[in-house]
C-alpha cells in the first residue's frame, strides 16, 4: 500500500473518529490511520511504524537536573539506538508535569503542569528527533477566569481545547474547559455544569458536580464527552494521607457530561460514581459509544447512543477485584474496536478486555508490568504496546516500588513480549508519564 503521508499544511478533517477514507499524498484513496488510537481525529495521522515516543516527564529532586522535561525515545526498528533515549529538553523547575497533546496540524506539542498551571509548547516538526521548547504560557488561570490544573490537550481545527482539574477559589474539583488558538491566544472558558448552575444541561440523576478530567469527541454525531477526577487540594496531597482523610475522599468526581461539540454547550450530565477518568470512543462508522473507567470503584462504563438517538451511561464490567481497589488509570482502545487495554496502578498490571460486544466486555488477558503502572499507548496495528509508570508526584509508590520506566512490548494477540526498558531513575530523567508518538514522515514532502 502506498504510504499515506499527511502534509502538515493540509488540514484534513476526518468525518468522525472512524478509520474513514481520506485523500493520500498520491491523490489516491487510502485508509486514514492513526499513530495510536487515543488521539484527536482532527489531527494528521501517522501510517505504519512510529519512529519516536515523546515522554512528558515529571522531574524529581536529586535525579538528573530535577526538572520536568520531554524525553525522546527512538523506536525505529533496526536502529543502533532502538529503545533508547536520544534527546531530552528540560523546562526548568517542577510543575507537576502530567498530560500533553498535539495541536491540529501536529507541528506542536502542548504540555501542562497541574501545580504551577504553566503550559509549555514544543516544536516537534523542525526536527522530530529533537523537540525544542517554543513557547510558555504563564497566564492560564488569569486567561480562563480561575481554572486551575491544565490536564487534557485536545486538538480542534485551529484550536486547542484544554480540560482543567480545579479552580483558584477553593482548589476543589469544580472547573472548566478552556480554549486557545494554535498560536496560544485565549479564546473562551466553558464552565462544567453544577447542580446549582446546570447551564442548560439535563441532569439525568438530578446531580452535577462541575468536576473535570478528560475530553474526547465523536465528530459525526456532534458529541463531546468530559469526565471527572478531583481538585488541586487532593491531587497535590500525599496519597496515603488522602486515603485516611474521610473528607478528602468525598472530593472526587462522579459525572460524565455530554456536550454539543460545535457550540460547546452541555447537553446532559450522567452520574458515574467513582471518578471516571480517560474517555475512549470507538473508531468504527457504527461505533456510537465510548468507554471510561472509574478509579475508585474499578468499573468499566459505557457511554452510548440508544435506539432513540439518546445518549446513556451504563456500568458494564468489573476491573480486577474492586474490593481491593486496584485503581484503574489509563485505557487504550484498539483501532478495530474489538479490545481495550486497562492499566491498574496499585497492582502494576495491564488487562485486556474483549469489547467486540461493548455491552458485555470480557477480560481475556493480564500481565504485571511493574510495581506500578499508569499510561498505556498502542500502535494503530496493535502490534506494539508501551507502558509508563508515574501517576502523580505525591501518589507514586515509595521506596523500591517507585519504579519509573518506559517499557515497550510486542503483542502477537496472545502474549506481551518485552522489546526494551528504559529506567528513568537510572538515566536521571525522573517520573515517566504521558507518551505521544512522532514520525519524520509527517513533515516530508510528497
What does this structure look like?
The chain has 446 residues and is mainly beta. The chain has a single domain, classed as Methylamine Dehydrogenase, Chain H. It is 3% helix and 42% strand. The chain is built from 3 helices and 31 strands. The chain has a 5-stranded mixed beta sheet with strand order 14-18-17-16-15, with no helix packed on it. The two termini are 16 Å apart.
List the main descriptive attributes of the protein structure presented here:
446 residues, mainly beta, Methylamine Dehydrogenase, Chain H, four-stranded antiparallel beta sheet, 31 strands, disordered N terminus
Average predicted local confidence, pLDDT: 91
Terminal residue distance = 16 Å
CATH class: Mainly Beta
Tally of individual domains: 1
Approximate helicity band: under 10%
Strand content: 35-45%
Tell me the major beta sheet. 5 strands, mixed
C-alpha geometry: globular
CATH superfamily: YVTN repeat-like/Quinoprotein amine dehydrogenase
CATH architecture: 7 Propeller
Note the total helix count.
3
Going across the biggest sheet, name each strand in turn.
14-18-17-16-15
Rg, rounded, reads 20 Å
Uncertain runs are 1-35
Total strands: 31
CATH level 3 topology: Methylamine Dehydrogenase, Chain H
Estimated structural class: mainly beta
Summarize the helices and strands and which ones pair or pack.
Elements: E1 21-23, E2 29-31, E3 52-58, E4 69-74, E5 84-90, E6 97-102, E7 108-113, E8 119-123, E9 132-137, H1 140-144, E10 147-156, E11 159-167, E12 176-181, E13 186-191, E14 202-203, E15 215-218, E16 223-226, H2 232-235, H3 239-243, E17 255-260, E18 265-271, E19 276-281, E20 289-294, E21 299-305, E22 311-318, E23 328-333, E24 339-344, E25 349-354, E26 362-368, E27 376-378, E28 384-388, E29 405-411, E30 416-423, E31 431-438
Parallel strand pairs: 14-18
Antiparallel strand pairs: 1-2, 3-4, 3-31, 4-5, 6-7, 7-8, 8-9, 10-11, 11-12, 12-13, 15-16, 16-17, 17-18, 19-20, 20-21, 21-22, 23-24, 24-25, 25-26, 27-28, 28-29, 29-30
